[in-house]
Amino acid sequence: MLRVENISHSFKTGNEWTKVLHSINFTVNQGEMVALLGSSGSGKSTLLNLMAGLMKPLEGHIYIADQDIVKLGENKLAEFRRKHIGFIFQAYELITSLTVCENVELPLVFQSVSPRIRRQKALQLLEQVGLQGKEDMFPSQLSGGQQQRVSIARSLITEPSVIFADEPTGNLDSKTEEEILAILLHLNKTLKTTFIVVTHEHEVADRMQRIFSLRDGYLINGDFREESPVSEEAAP
Predict the structure, then answer these.
(1) CATH code where residue 206 lies
(2) Cα-atom radius of gyration of the chain, to the nearest Å?
(3) Cα 82 to Cα 28, 107, 124, 155, distances in angstroms
(4) Less Cβ around it within 10 Å: N or C end of the chain?
(5) 71 in a domain, yes or no?
(6) What pTM did the predictor assign?
(7) Which residue spans within the chain are E strands per DSSP?
(8) What letter does residue 218 receive in the DSSP assignment?
(9) Does 24 map to a domain?
(10) 107 — pLDDT class (breaks 50, 70, 90)
(11) Residue 12 DSSP code
(12) For 121-131, how does the pLDDT look when each residue is reduced to its tens digit (9 = 90+)?
């Protein structure tokens, strides 16, 4: 589902180049749930932006659903992202003037899907993340954990090939963090959706099937786990 081949990247500051990623290689299979683990400055945010097609690497290739996104022009890349890539953000990134249901529907608006089908799909996803009955509320009326559930539902509505979750529990207390992780695991198992969870927390990474660890721009390991230890009891 996702293949990263010999990705290297540098940033220019003044007249000097600073290399932030060094020949990164790994593969994520369909339906896997993996962690990209690293501390601040490890290069994980840069790698996330490259994999999501938000930046172009200076070297290497990134394949998603057998498409080398590095070779796509800006218009084709934007279209590819809308269809194949979902995002879950640490700060939720919900539009405060829209209802819960309207926030979830939004990616389908850009695909010209009819209002009836948009709402039907959104309501189904809101039920899956445990927010049935809250579809006409506004983000300000929800807790942080509930807002993140809205973000999760929104990321799934286009049925993407892969979802990138950027520090999805970073703003949550430990109890809510566990609930959100359980929901992600439940969705991963039931929908067979591929998740890349970017985190600096070992406790979060340990819940995943595999961990890709970055340090100073180098991939230092890819640890495989047969079963994720996350409990699904907190999932809806």
Answers:
(1) 3.40.50.300
(2) 18
(3) 20, 7, 20, 10
(4) C
(5) no
(6) 0.87
(7) 2-13, 16-28, 33-37, 59-64, 67-68, 85-88, 162-166, 194-199, 210-215, 218-224
(8) E
(9) no
(10) very high
(11) E
(12) 999 999 999 99
